[in-house]
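Lab meeting, item 3. Inverse folding demo.
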């Protein structure tokens, strides 16, 4: 296939595995690594080469895509891969890491002579599986042709935000976006909890929203999870809580006072303490009722 890339995917959780599958469907040569190898093994059936070490995955790669929990886990994987990174390879980091994590990433990229693209993605499990993510990207022009081949496979739209990944434009925008996501999740959870407490049929609430400017597809999706009791994760309580902490740190650094976010983070922390950390963030609803 013309323009086929060799792509190493480090991290095959919900998002990384979906991106790897879409890269394979686009005809690229994909090598994958995950800390828990069993989570990567199903990708072998789709044609991926599953490796036991990050260095094995990145050997000969045109593009290295990282999809891991946070900045430290991304850097751990890349340092483990350092000896086999090819000079001039493009490193596409898609995780929500916060702007403070980018300085060590940029320093590492310079040291290893690879091209860093900061590219956090907007979307959860379903759009990831459908190749419909929105990518927020910042990085050098020289890296973009290869990066865009990857983005074409995993996303529906790419928004470029400058040539300097280390400036953090993409990661900062992702935190702003996720701040709104957290607000909608907790707002939906509390509204439905209040409805239950007042003896209001939640469907009446949803029917009243229909056709108004206050309605949203995301609210509907989280409401469905709550009302069905199906908390199969697309964005877990623990991951949202991690992002809330990053948002709080960034706000404090920039001198911005946030009031809703700390309250929402406290609510999520309570849900996690109650044993719901691995459930979808809609399980914020359960924090209204349990001790």
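The presenter then showed the designed sequence:
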């Amino acid at each position: 296939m013309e323009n086929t890339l060799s792509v190493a995917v480090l991290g095959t959780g919900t998002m990384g595995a979906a991106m790897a599958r879409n890269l394979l469907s686009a005809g690229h040569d994909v090598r994958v690594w995950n800390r828990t190898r069993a989570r990567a093994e199903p990708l072998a059936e789709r044609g991926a080469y599953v490796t036991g070490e990050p260095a094995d995955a990145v050997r000969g790669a045109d593009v290295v895509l990282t999809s891991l929990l946070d900045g430290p886990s991304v850097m751990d994987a890349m340092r483990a891969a350092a000896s086999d990174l090819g000079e001039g390879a493009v490193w596409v980091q898609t995780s929500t890491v916060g702007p403070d994590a980018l300085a060590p990433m940029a320093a590492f990229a310079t040291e290893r002579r690879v091209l860093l693209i900061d590219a956090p993605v907007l979307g959860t499990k379903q759009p990831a599986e459908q190749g419909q993510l929105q990518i927020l990207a910042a990085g050098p022009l020289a890296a973009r042709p290869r990066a865009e081949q990857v983005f074409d496979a995993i996303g529906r739209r790419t928004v470029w935000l400058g040539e300097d990944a280390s400036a953090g434009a993409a990661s900062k925008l992702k935190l702003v976006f996720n701040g709104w996501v957290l607000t909608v999740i907790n707002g939906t959870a509390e509204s439905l909890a209040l409805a239950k407490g007042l003896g209001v049929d939640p469907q009446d609430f949803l029917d009243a929203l229909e056709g108004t400017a206050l309605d949203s597809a995301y609210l509907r999706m989280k409401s469905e999870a709550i009302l069905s009791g199906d908390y199969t994760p697309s964005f877990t309580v623990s991951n949202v809580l991690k992002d809330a902490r990053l948002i709080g740190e960034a706000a404090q650094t920039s001198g911005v006072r946030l009031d809703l976010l700390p309250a929402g983070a406290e609510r999520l922390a309570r849900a996690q303490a109650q044993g719901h950390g691995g459930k979808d963030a809609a399980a914020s609803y359960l924090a209204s009722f349990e001790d």
